[in-house]
Design a protein that fits this description.
By secondary structure, the chain is α/β, with parallel strands linked by helices. The chain has a single domain, classed as Metal-dependent hydrolases (TIM Barrel), CATH 3.20.20.140. It is 43% helix and 14% strand. It has 9 helices and 8 strands. Helix 5 packs across helix 6. The chain is globular, with a radius of gyration of 18 Å. The N and C termini lie close together (8 Å). The relative contact order is 0.16.
């Protein structure tokens, strides 16, 4: 019999073993009652130079895979890598002199490498998206082409694609694109989502009012902090203890079914992971 009342999964956070807290943040998560993590690679320019092609992404991906292995060693459950290309890279590349089309090509090559990690079993899912701020029409279209490319790669690998996009309660346009490419709509996951969302599965930012909306809605959802592990922005987004603490709050509020949905049923349905088994 497990000593845990429930698995506790943070679906989207970052770890920076070079500049940030790294494994210390994982230990804090575990001490608060956390059991499982999905660790998303930090934007490539945070851990090195701007990428110029497929191979340029490998050091960032390897850093993430390595820190995930170390995280698993200290967690009651385990961690998995989510690899891909942050949509803000298009701005970084264009600002450095690339055309939007050239930036698109570099970003698609990064997605291809991430998909290879998924195929080999070294990563669980992909990350993509589009800017959440105003950009030129050319940059917007290039970004959407990268996103559609990621959906196609997700369909080929039958894996989740986590999205970084604009705030919205209706992103059915993107799940329609997923349908066209053969990726199940539920495997499109909106990172930093609110508690209501049409289209993708919401990975709900763990604020009480949004979690209440998600739990009362009765639909599949996940929970996240988007912890960025940046010492220059210590108060940005939410800290690593937040998801375990919000699970306790959900229990106090009587949302046991919501806890089961976010930490057992939805991870099994989307990622084919058994969070209880990982605690055995």
């Amino acid at each position: 019999m497990s000593e845990f009342e429930t698995p506790v999964l943070d679906n989207h956070l970052h770890l920076d073993p070079v500049h940030g807290r790294g494994i210390e943040a994982v230990k804090e998560f575990a001490r608060a009652g956390g059991t499982h993590l999905l660790v998303v690679n930090k934007p490539s320019w945070h851990l090195g130079d701007l990428p110029t092609g497929r191979d340029s992404f490998e050091p960032v991906f390897e850093t993430t895979v390595s820190v995930v292995e170390r995280a698993t060693a200290v967690l009651p459950g385990r961690a998995w890598p989510v690899l891909g290309v942050h949509p803000a890279l298009v701005y970084q590349l264009v600002d450095a002199g690339s055309t939007p089309e050239e930036a698109r090509e570099v970003m698609c090559e990064g997605i291809d490498l991430a998909a290879a990690y998924v195929e080999s079993g070294r990563a669980l899912a992909l990350k993509s998206g589009r800017p959440h701020y105003e950009v030129s029409e050319e940059v917007w279209e290039a970004s959407n082409e990268v996103l559609r490319h990621a959906l196609a790669r997700g369909a080929e690998r039958d894996c989740v694609v986590q999205l970084h996009t604009e705030s919205s309660e209706d992103l059915t346009e993107i799940t329609d694109w997923a349908d066209e490419r053969g990726l199940a709509r539920e495997k499109v996951v909106k990172h930093f989502a609110g508690g209501r969302l049409e289209g993708p599965t919401p990975s709900v930012i763990s604020r009480r009012e949004e979690l209440r909306r998600a739990a009362e809605g009765g639909e599949p959802f996940l929970m996240e902090t988007d912890f960025i592990d940046d010492p220059d922005r210590p108060g940005a987004v939410l800290g690593p203890k937040t998801v375990p603490r919000r699970v306790e709050w959900l229990r106090e509020e009587g949302y046991e079914a919501g806890i089961e949905t976010a930490h057992v049923e939805t991870p099994r349905r989307l990622y084919d992971i058994d969070t209880w088994a990982e605690l055995a």
